[in-house]
Amino acid sequence: MFPARSLSLVLVAGLGLQAQAPFDGRIAEIEQVLNRHFRGPRADEARERSNQEIEAFNGRSKRANAELAEARAKMEQATAPGRTAFAELTKLDAELKASIPDGADKPGNAKYAVRIDARNAFAGKVNALNEAGQRAIAEFNALAAKTKAELDNERTQIMANQEAINLRVQDFEKFVKSGEDIAFFVRVNRLLAEVRTALRKAEGPELTASLSKVRAIRRELGQWAIAGQSLNPKGLIVVEAQVQDEPCWLIVDTGATETILSQEIADAIGLGGAQAESVSLIVVGGLRLQGRHFTIPKLTTLGQTLANVSAAAVRPADVGIDGLLGQSFLKSFSYTIDKRKPEKLFLIAN
Known about the structure:
Layout: H1 4-15, H2 24-38, H3 43-98, H4 106-177, H5 180-201, H6 205-231, E1 238-243, E2 246-252, E3 259-262, H7 263-269, E4 278-282, E5 288-301, E6 304-314, E7 323-325, H8 327-330, E8 333-337, E9 345-349
Helix pairs in contact: 2-5, 2-6, 3-4, 5-6, 5-7
């Protein structure tokens, strides 16, 4: 048993703790996956940006080499007089060495002394020219070293970026190949269903905040999916829809007989329970699926609303996608598809 004073300290410390919202831990785990795989530039965008960086670097490298070649030519021009003068001095020294007069030849020695003085004066000019040449060489070497360091640093950074992109792509490919992407999206939608079920039983600020967070995550995934399809020339058309009061992202499938939602979304909205009738569905490519039939009281997309839309609940089709917008909705409108335009699908009420 704690003494009275110790117990008092324990109780006071306990008063400072705040209860964690019931879904905060799971939301935090989902955020970690978002940060790892879905946030930041898309891999294809990052690779394109990296390719542009490489192209720009190659251009700068080419210009830098041209500038160095020009600087070298100027350096060679600046050192040429010194080299020419030194060659002349070397030739003169050889001539002087070969024509040293006899010590007894006073007139010859006097003339030779004059030649030596002229040689020394010329040597001073040679030294001055050589010093100017050395300065030109030093300036060129400094420019060459600076240019090389800058290009090397930029090359290293580009290679690091390339490696990071490759690792990210490999990580995401592993994520998809193992089926973790589908499992992750199901987890997000299952969390949405559980939060909404809890809110139907008892409303509260913590649950309302959790719903807002989950909806924000789903919107982020929906926009991620739309962006991915837009980058693909053969990409699917994805639209945002309001299914009852829940924002959803649906693939437009003119070949689907029914509008289809994932079971988790149907559960979140409170539709398509286990007692619903089992139905066989035909989707794009003639693929048949088994689902549970239900009716969506209200579905809104692209400014058009339809009541009592026949639908079915099935397993999710893709990451960021909640289902298919099929003929049970589309047949009530005149619609056109133009993939050249941002919205792509256009609806007109019949």
